[in-house]
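Hi R.,

As promised on Friday, here is the backbone we talked about, encoded as structure tokens. Could you run it through your design pipeline when you get a chance and send me back a sequence?
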């Protein structure tokens, strides 16, 4: 495996664990209510802007993944889409780059 693939894999793992720590901490403190978390994302203009920024990045990444999978037939790369929406762009993007950079057989 190339050094760059290790970097992508490390970033994907970090992008899964680090944000999830804060999500789980928030849920433990405020109850396991997804609606309340979504409300918290829109508590002020700064968080609303960040929410939209990440939403647009997630949609862009999804379109890129789908268009490349259609050409490259790298079906395993589709796993980056649920990772993006269930964990975040911080996991989905490096995971996709990791999966995309595998050697072509």
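Update: got your reply. Pasting your designed sequence below so it's all in one thread:
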């Amino acid at each position: 495996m190339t050094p760059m693939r290790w970097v992508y894999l490390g970033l994907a793992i970090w992008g899964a664990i680090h944000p999830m720590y804060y999500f789980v901490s928030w849920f433990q403190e405020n109850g396991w209510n997804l609606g309340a978390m979504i409300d918290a994302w829109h508590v002020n203009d700064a968080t609303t802007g960040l929410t939209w920024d990440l939403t647009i990045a997630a949609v862009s990444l999804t379109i890129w993944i789908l268009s490349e999978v259609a050409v490259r037939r790298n079906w395993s790369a589709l796993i980056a889409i649920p990772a993006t929406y269930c964990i975040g762009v911080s996991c989905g993007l490096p995971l996709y780059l990791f999966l995309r950079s595998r050697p072509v057989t």
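One thing I noticed while checking it: The chain has five helices and no strands.

Thanks again,
M.
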